[in-house]
Predict the 3D structure of the following.
Amino acid sequence: MCREILKISLFLFIWLLSLPSFSMQSNDHKDRCKWIEKSPMPSARSELTTLVYEEKIYVLGGIGRDKALSSFEVYDTIKDKWTILASLPIPNHHGSLGIVNGKIYLIGGFVDLTWRHANGIIYQYDIEKNSWQDYDSLNMLRVAHTSESVDDRIYIFGGHGYKPSHVLYYMPEKKKMRELETHMPSPADHIASIINSDGNFIILGGRFRDGNLNQIRIYNPEKNRWFANNGLPYATSGHVVELIDNQIHILGGENLQKNITFKSHWYFDLEKNVWVESLDLPHGLHGMGAGVINNSLYVFGGAKSAGMNSFHTLQNKNFKLLCK
Protein backbone atom coordinates (compact mmCIF):
# COMPACT_ATOMS: atom_id res chain seq x y z
CA MET A 1 0.00 0.00 0.00
CA CYS A 2 0.90 3.78 -0.30
CA ARG A 3 -0.51 6.20 2.27
CA GLU A 4 0.12 9.55 3.94
CA ILE A 5 3.14 9.06 6.20
CA LEU A 6 3.27 9.77 9.92
CA LYS A 7 6.59 10.15 11.68
CA ILE A 8 6.96 7.87 14.71
CA SER A 9 9.72 7.16 17.17
CA LEU A 10 11.29 4.03 15.74
CA PHE A 11 13.78 3.58 18.52
CA LEU A 12 11.09 3.80 21.20
CA PHE A 13 9.10 1.20 19.31
CA ILE A 14 12.16 -1.03 19.00
CA TRP A 15 12.80 -0.70 22.74
CA LEU A 16 9.24 -1.79 23.37
CA LEU A 17 9.82 -4.83 21.19
CA SER A 18 12.48 -5.97 23.64
CA LEU A 19 9.93 -6.23 26.44
CA PRO A 20 8.25 -9.59 27.17
CA SER A 21 4.92 -8.15 26.02
CA PHE A 22 3.16 -4.88 25.40
CA SER A 23 0.64 -3.66 27.95
CA MET A 24 -2.92 -3.59 26.69
CA GLN A 25 -6.05 -1.74 27.71
CA SER A 26 -9.62 -1.01 26.69
CA ASN A 27 -10.61 2.35 25.33
CA ASP A 28 -13.52 4.77 25.20
CA HIS A 29 -13.70 4.42 21.41
CA LYS A 30 -16.58 2.05 22.05
CA ASP A 31 -18.55 4.89 23.63
CA ARG A 32 -17.56 7.84 21.47
CA CYS A 33 -17.03 6.20 18.06
CA LYS A 34 -19.22 4.32 15.62
CA TRP A 35 -18.97 2.84 12.15
CA ILE A 36 -21.18 4.51 9.58
CA GLU A 37 -21.92 3.25 6.08
CA LYS A 38 -20.83 5.41 3.17
CA SER A 39 -21.36 4.92 -0.56
CA PRO A 40 -20.80 1.20 -1.32
CA MET A 41 -18.22 -0.12 -3.75
CA PRO A 42 -19.49 -0.78 -7.30
CA SER A 43 -19.17 -4.55 -6.72
CA ALA A 44 -18.59 -7.01 -3.89
CA ARG A 45 -15.09 -8.43 -3.68
CA SER A 46 -12.23 -9.57 -1.46
CA GLU A 47 -8.43 -9.76 -1.83
CA LEU A 48 -8.47 -6.41 -3.60
CA THR A 49 -5.52 -4.06 -3.88
CA THR A 50 -5.59 -0.46 -2.67
CA LEU A 51 -3.50 2.68 -2.90
CA VAL A 52 -4.03 6.13 -1.33
CA TYR A 53 -2.83 9.04 -3.44
CA GLU A 54 -3.71 12.73 -3.40
CA GLU A 55 -6.59 12.23 -0.96
CA LYS A 56 -8.26 9.54 -3.05
CA ILE A 57 -8.39 5.76 -2.63
CA TYR A 58 -7.67 3.63 -5.70
CA VAL A 59 -9.02 0.06 -5.67
CA LEU A 60 -7.95 -2.64 -8.12
CA GLY A 61 -9.20 -6.13 -8.92
CA GLY A 62 -9.93 -8.75 -6.31
CA ILE A 63 -12.04 -11.89 -6.13
CA GLY A 64 -15.65 -11.53 -7.24
CA ARG A 65 -18.51 -13.96 -6.76
CA ASP A 66 -17.35 -16.35 -9.47
CA LYS A 67 -14.18 -14.91 -11.01
CA ALA A 68 -11.07 -12.82 -10.59
CA LEU A 69 -11.72 -9.16 -11.38
CA SER A 70 -9.94 -6.59 -13.56
CA SER A 71 -12.05 -3.62 -12.45
CA PHE A 72 -10.40 -0.42 -11.24
CA GLU A 73 -12.12 2.38 -9.32
CA VAL A 74 -11.26 5.46 -7.33
CA TYR A 75 -13.13 6.66 -4.23
CA ASP A 76 -13.47 10.36 -3.52
CA THR A 77 -14.13 10.61 0.22
CA ILE A 78 -15.15 14.29 0.04
CA LYS A 79 -17.88 13.64 -2.53
CA ASP A 80 -18.52 10.12 -1.18
CA LYS A 81 -18.41 8.93 -4.77
CA TRP A 82 -16.90 5.93 -6.58
CA THR A 83 -15.70 6.48 -10.17
CA ILE A 84 -15.07 3.56 -12.51
CA LEU A 85 -11.70 3.85 -14.26
CA ALA A 86 -10.08 1.92 -17.11
CA SER A 87 -9.98 -1.79 -16.36
CA LEU A 88 -6.69 -3.64 -15.99
CA PRO A 89 -5.88 -5.68 -19.14
CA ILE A 90 -6.00 -8.89 -17.06
CA PRO A 91 -7.78 -9.99 -13.87
CA ASN A 92 -5.76 -9.68 -10.66
CA HIS A 93 -6.03 -10.49 -6.98
CA HIS A 94 -3.50 -10.76 -4.14
CA GLY A 95 -1.28 -8.20 -5.89
CA SER A 96 0.05 -4.84 -4.70
CA LEU A 97 0.16 -1.28 -6.01
CA GLY A 98 2.97 1.25 -5.84
CA ILE A 99 3.34 4.79 -7.07
CA VAL A 100 6.41 6.58 -8.46
CA ASN A 101 6.34 10.05 -10.05
CA GLY A 102 2.56 10.05 -10.31
CA LYS A 103 2.34 6.70 -12.13
CA ILE A 104 0.71 3.65 -10.50
CA TYR A 105 2.32 0.21 -10.86
CA LEU A 106 0.82 -3.23 -10.29
CA ILE A 107 3.22 -5.80 -8.86
CA GLY A 108 2.45 -9.52 -8.87
CA GLY A 109 -0.77 -11.22 -7.81
CA PHE A 110 -2.82 -14.08 -9.26
CA VAL A 111 -4.61 -13.78 -12.61
CA ASP A 112 -7.37 -16.37 -12.07
CA LEU A 113 -8.98 -18.53 -9.40
CA THR A 114 -6.89 -21.65 -9.99
CA TRP A 115 -4.31 -20.22 -7.54
CA ARG A 116 -1.59 -21.46 -9.90
CA HIS A 117 -1.01 -18.61 -12.35
CA ALA A 118 0.83 -15.55 -11.10
CA ASN A 119 1.02 -12.25 -12.95
CA GLY A 120 4.37 -11.96 -14.74
CA ILE A 121 3.84 -8.43 -16.06
CA ILE A 122 4.28 -5.09 -14.33
CA TYR A 123 1.45 -2.83 -15.49
CA GLN A 124 1.62 0.96 -15.37
CA TYR A 125 -1.42 3.21 -14.96
CA ASP A 126 -1.37 6.81 -16.17
CA ILE A 127 -3.74 8.81 -13.96
CA GLU A 128 -4.06 11.74 -16.38
CA LYS A 129 -4.76 9.54 -19.40
CA ASN A 130 -6.81 6.94 -17.49
CA SER A 131 -4.98 4.13 -19.27
CA TRP A 132 -2.98 0.99 -18.48
CA GLN A 133 0.03 -0.28 -20.36
CA ASP A 134 2.14 -3.42 -20.28
CA TYR A 135 5.22 -1.79 -18.78
CA ASP A 136 7.76 -4.47 -17.86
CA SER A 137 8.21 -8.21 -17.33
CA LEU A 138 8.40 -9.66 -13.84
CA ASN A 139 10.50 -12.78 -13.33
CA MET A 140 10.61 -12.62 -9.52
CA LEU A 141 6.95 -13.53 -9.04
CA ARG A 142 5.15 -12.70 -5.79
CA VAL A 143 1.56 -13.05 -4.59
CA ALA A 144 -0.12 -12.24 -1.25
CA HIS A 145 2.70 -9.83 -0.45
CA THR A 146 2.81 -6.17 0.55
CA SER A 147 4.63 -3.20 -0.92
CA GLU A 148 5.56 0.36 -0.01
CA SER A 149 6.67 3.22 -2.26
CA VAL A 150 9.63 5.44 -1.34
CA ASP A 151 11.05 7.99 -3.78
CA ASP A 152 11.87 6.13 -7.01
CA ARG A 153 11.47 2.62 -5.58
CA ILE A 154 8.70 0.17 -4.75
CA TYR A 155 9.73 -2.20 -1.95
CA ILE A 156 8.17 -5.68 -1.85
CA PHE A 157 7.90 -7.78 1.30
CA GLY A 158 6.75 -11.33 1.96
CA GLY A 159 4.14 -13.33 0.10
CA HIS A 160 4.42 -16.56 -1.88
CA GLY A 161 6.73 -17.11 -4.82
CA TYR A 162 10.29 -16.05 -5.48
CA LYS A 163 12.41 -16.22 -2.31
CA PRO A 164 9.56 -15.04 -0.06
CA SER A 165 11.78 -13.99 2.84
CA HIS A 166 13.95 -11.82 0.56
CA VAL A 167 13.18 -8.12 0.21
CA LEU A 168 12.83 -6.91 -3.38
CA TYR A 169 12.65 -3.41 -4.77
CA TYR A 170 11.57 -2.24 -8.20
CA MET A 171 12.82 0.92 -9.91
CA PRO A 172 10.25 1.80 -12.61
CA GLU A 173 12.32 4.44 -14.37
CA LYS A 174 15.18 1.96 -14.84
CA LYS A 175 12.88 -1.03 -15.27
CA LYS A 176 15.00 -3.00 -12.83
CA MET A 177 14.08 -5.36 -9.99
CA ARG A 178 16.71 -5.87 -7.30
CA GLU A 179 17.14 -7.74 -4.01
CA LEU A 180 18.28 -6.15 -0.78
CA GLU A 181 21.11 -7.84 1.07
CA THR A 182 18.78 -8.63 3.92
CA HIS A 183 15.93 -11.02 4.66
CA MET A 184 12.77 -10.77 6.70
CA PRO A 185 13.16 -12.50 10.10
CA SER A 186 10.85 -15.22 8.77
CA PRO A 187 8.76 -15.69 5.62
CA ALA A 188 5.09 -14.72 5.79
CA ASP A 189 2.22 -14.06 3.41
CA HIS A 190 -1.05 -12.14 3.73
CA ILE A 191 0.83 -9.49 5.70
CA ALA A 192 0.23 -5.74 6.05
CA SER A 193 2.70 -2.88 6.25
CA ILE A 194 3.21 0.79 6.99
CA ILE A 195 6.22 3.06 6.66
CA ASN A 196 7.32 6.05 8.72
CA SER A 197 8.79 9.30 7.44
CA ASP A 198 12.34 8.13 8.21
CA GLY A 199 11.89 5.30 5.71
CA ASN A 200 11.60 2.51 8.28
CA PHE A 201 9.24 -0.32 7.34
CA ILE A 202 6.88 -1.89 9.89
CA ILE A 203 5.28 -5.20 8.82
CA LEU A 204 2.57 -6.78 10.92
CA GLY A 205 1.04 -10.25 11.20
CA GLY A 206 0.55 -12.66 8.31
CA ARG A 207 0.77 -16.42 8.18
CA PHE A 208 3.16 -19.19 7.17
CA ARG A 209 2.65 -22.97 7.08
CA ASP A 210 1.77 -23.56 10.73
CA GLY A 211 -0.74 -20.74 10.84
CA ASN A 212 -1.15 -17.12 11.80
CA LEU A 213 1.63 -14.98 13.24
CA ASN A 214 1.41 -12.18 15.79
CA GLN A 215 4.83 -10.90 14.77
CA ILE A 216 5.87 -7.26 14.49
CA ARG A 217 8.84 -6.74 12.16
CA ILE A 218 10.70 -3.46 11.73
CA TYR A 219 13.31 -2.91 9.04
CA ASN A 220 15.68 0.03 9.42
CA PRO A 221 17.27 0.53 5.97
CA GLU A 222 19.86 2.97 7.29
CA LYS A 223 21.29 0.31 9.60
CA ASN A 224 20.22 -2.55 7.31
CA ARG A 225 18.84 -4.28 10.36
CA TRP A 226 15.63 -6.09 11.34
CA PHE A 227 13.92 -6.07 14.72
CA ALA A 228 11.10 -8.51 15.51
CA ASN A 229 8.87 -9.57 18.36
CA ASN A 230 5.61 -11.46 18.84
CA GLY A 231 3.89 -8.35 20.13
CA LEU A 232 0.58 -8.05 18.27
CA PRO A 233 -2.57 -8.29 20.41
CA TYR A 234 -3.85 -11.12 18.20
CA ALA A 235 -2.42 -13.35 15.47
CA THR A 236 -4.01 -12.58 12.13
CA SER A 237 -3.60 -12.67 8.35
CA GLY A 238 -5.51 -11.02 5.52
CA HIS A 239 -5.96 -7.96 7.75
CA VAL A 240 -5.39 -4.23 7.20
CA VAL A 241 -3.09 -1.76 8.96
CA GLU A 242 -3.34 2.03 8.87
CA LEU A 243 -1.86 5.11 10.57
CA ILE A 244 -4.07 7.75 12.19
CA ASP A 245 -2.37 10.58 14.05
CA ASN A 246 -0.03 8.83 16.50
CA GLN A 247 -1.80 5.47 16.33
CA ILE A 248 -1.05 2.29 14.39
CA HIS A 249 -4.39 0.55 13.73
CA ILE A 250 -4.80 -3.14 12.92
CA LEU A 251 -8.20 -4.50 11.90
CA GLY A 252 -9.84 -7.79 10.97
CA GLY A 253 -8.24 -10.73 9.22
CA GLU A 254 -8.78 -14.47 9.31
CA ASN A 255 -7.61 -17.76 10.80
CA LEU A 256 -7.72 -20.51 8.18
CA GLN A 257 -7.13 -23.33 10.66
CA LYS A 258 -10.16 -22.31 12.72
CA ASN A 259 -12.11 -21.16 9.64
CA ILE A 260 -13.02 -17.82 11.22
CA THR A 261 -12.69 -14.13 10.47
CA PHE A 262 -11.95 -11.42 13.02
CA LYS A 263 -13.82 -8.20 13.70
CA SER A 264 -11.07 -7.12 16.10
CA HIS A 265 -9.75 -3.56 16.00
CA TRP A 266 -6.72 -2.50 18.04
CA TYR A 267 -4.33 0.40 17.82
CA PHE A 268 -0.88 1.08 19.25
CA ASP A 269 -0.76 4.45 21.01
CA LEU A 270 2.70 5.86 20.34
CA GLU A 271 2.44 8.43 23.13
CA LYS A 272 1.29 6.05 25.87
CA ASN A 273 3.22 3.06 24.46
CA VAL A 274 0.28 0.71 24.84
CA TRP A 275 -1.97 -1.44 22.67
CA VAL A 276 -5.56 -0.25 23.00
CA GLU A 277 -8.64 -2.32 22.20
CA SER A 278 -10.81 -0.14 19.98
CA LEU A 279 -14.25 -0.35 18.40
CA ASP A 280 -14.72 -3.68 16.60
CA LEU A 281 -15.63 -3.81 12.95
CA PRO A 282 -19.37 -4.31 12.32
CA HIS A 283 -18.57 -7.96 11.56
CA GLY A 284 -15.60 -10.22 10.85
CA LEU A 285 -13.77 -9.48 7.60
CA HIS A 286 -10.71 -10.61 5.69
CA GLY A 287 -9.23 -9.53 2.37
CA MET A 288 -10.77 -6.06 2.60
CA GLY A 289 -9.33 -2.71 1.63
CA ALA A 290 -8.66 0.32 3.79
CA GLY A 291 -7.40 3.87 3.59
CA VAL A 292 -6.98 6.99 5.70
CA ILE A 293 -7.92 10.39 4.29
CA ASN A 294 -7.77 13.52 6.46
CA ASN A 295 -7.40 11.35 9.58
CA SER A 296 -10.59 9.43 8.75
CA LEU A 297 -10.43 5.64 8.47
CA TYR A 298 -12.34 3.81 5.73
CA VAL A 299 -12.71 0.02 5.45
CA PHE A 300 -14.44 -1.52 2.43
CA GLY A 301 -15.09 -4.80 0.67
CA GLY A 302 -13.76 -8.12 1.94
CA ALA A 303 -15.38 -11.42 2.86
CA LYS A 304 -17.22 -12.27 6.07
CA SER A 305 -16.04 -15.89 6.02
CA ALA A 306 -12.50 -17.27 5.87
CA GLY A 307 -10.58 -18.98 3.12
CA MET A 308 -10.82 -19.38 -0.63
CA ASN A 309 -14.45 -20.53 -0.66
CA SER A 310 -15.91 -17.33 0.76
CA PHE A 311 -17.62 -16.20 -2.45
CA HIS A 312 -21.06 -16.29 -0.83
CA THR A 313 -20.04 -13.80 1.88
CA LEU A 314 -18.34 -11.14 -0.26
CA GLN A 315 -19.50 -7.62 0.48
CA ASN A 316 -19.28 -4.17 -1.07
CA LYS A 317 -20.02 -2.12 2.04
CA ASN A 318 -17.87 0.89 2.80
CA PHE A 319 -17.47 1.80 6.47
CA LYS A 320 -16.11 5.01 7.95
CA LEU A 321 -15.01 5.28 11.58
CA LEU A 322 -16.72 8.34 13.01
CA CYS A 323 -15.65 9.61 16.44
CA LYS A 324 -17.02 12.48 18.53
User: Anything to note?
Assistant: The longest helix spans residues 10-17. The domain at 10-323 is CATH 2.120.10.80 (Neuraminidase). The two ends are 28 Å apart (CA to CA).
